[in-house]
């Protein structure tokens, strides 16, 4: 039996605090040019998780003195009406970024809706043009969660160059852009990346080879300690509700079984308090970047 290792906790809250401290001067600079970085959030339906995220985003934007508005629609809004609202926001100079909160109700073609957002205002980085630029190594906006993961690794000095990174999950929101970013010729790239997903047999045979595991599959506590190489770093993107006997009736867990990786992983992000705070921090940063690009005449 191998000896236990000390497992360090990678606090996303700590990294986010550092991000906001560095953003303050950039926000002041934008305001000195008469521009208040602004974000429009489009929320369709009443998904509880989406509502929590948008409220958290709104509190942070207000605290930083930024402008944000949430445009809410019922789940049965006509698709053309939703597209028309996005076009209106594209033309509104008050907003430098537009966020279409996902998931949209099943009746909507998410790809069509996201493609309607102006690429210059697509601070989520989901527009096909921006995903294509990311794949080419010239990103305009990096999707918020993958960008936040890179910042966590950078902040805690977890090198990616020459390392084997296994990404569990292949969504265009996290898994796919994450694998692309890690393979780019950048200070936070130069890794060898393997993407596993729901159709991958014996995922553990891959994760046990990994120096870094990024779990973004949406399955509660799927990654366990016996699936890891001792000393590896684990980034847990999952936020899942699991029923329990508490007053709330549930608790939040990640895609990683946190207790079982203790003493095996060299480092792990907690849930909550890990990747979540960084997603909002990167949304703020991307919105500030969009405002800076607008001021400089880049779009």
Your description of this structure?
It is globular and about 60 Å long. The strands form three sheets. A six-stranded parallel beta sheet has the order 1-11-8-7-5-6, with helices on one face. It has a three-stranded parallel beta sheet with strand order 3-2-4, sandwiched between helices. A two-stranded antiparallel ribbon has the order 9-10. It has helices at residues 12-32, 48-63, 79-91, 110-116, 128-136, 144-155, 175-183, 204-207, 258-261, 275-295; strands spanning 8-9, 38-44, 67-73, 97-100, 164-168, 192-196, 212-215, 233-236, 240-243, 250-253, 267-268. The chain contains ten helices and eleven strands. The longest helix is centred in the N-terminal third of the chain and has 21 residues, at 12-32. It folds into two domains: 35-118, Rossmann fold (3-Layer(aba) Sandwich); 143-276, 3-Layer(aba) Sandwich (Rossmann fold), CATH 3.40.50.720. The chain has 299 residues and is α/β, with parallel strands linked by helices.
């Amino acid at each position: 039996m191998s000896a236990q290792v000390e497992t360090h906790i990678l606090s996303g809250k700590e990294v986010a605090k550092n991000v906001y401290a560095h953003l303050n001067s950039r926000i002041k600079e934008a305001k000195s040019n008469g521009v208040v970085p602004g974000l429009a959030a489009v929320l369709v339906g009443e998904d509880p998780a989406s509502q929590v995220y948008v409220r958290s985003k709104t509190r942070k934007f207000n605290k930083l003195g930024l402008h944000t508005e949430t445009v809410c629609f019922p789940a049965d809004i006509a698709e053309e009406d939703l597209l028309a609202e996005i076009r209106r926001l594209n033309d509104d100079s008050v907003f430098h970024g537009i966020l279409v909160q996902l998931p949209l109700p099943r009746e909507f073609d998410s790809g069509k809706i996201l493609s309607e957002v102006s690429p210059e205002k697509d601070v989520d980085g989901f527009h096909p043009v921006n995903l294509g630029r990311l794949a080419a190594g010239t990103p305009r906006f990096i999707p918020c969660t993958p960008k936040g993961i890179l910042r966590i690794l950078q902040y805690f000095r977890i090198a990616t160059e020459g390392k084997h990174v296994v990404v569990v999950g292949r969504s265009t929101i996290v898994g796919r852009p994450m694998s692309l970013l890690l393979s780019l010729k950048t200070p936070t790239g130069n890794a060898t990346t393997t993407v596993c997903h729901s159709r991958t047999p014996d995922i553990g045979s891959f994760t046990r080879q990994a120096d870094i595991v990024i779990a973004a599959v949406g399955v509660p506590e799927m990654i366990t300690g016996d699936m890891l190489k001792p000393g590896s770093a684990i980034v847990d993107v999952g936020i899942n509700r699991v029923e329990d006997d508490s007053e709330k009736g549930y608790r939040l867990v990640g895609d990683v079984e946190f207790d079982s990786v203790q003493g095996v992983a060299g480092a792990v992000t907690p849930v909550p308090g890990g990747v979540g705070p960084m997603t909002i921090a990167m949304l703020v940063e991307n919105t500030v970047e969009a405002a800076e690009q607008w001021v400089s005449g880049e779009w």
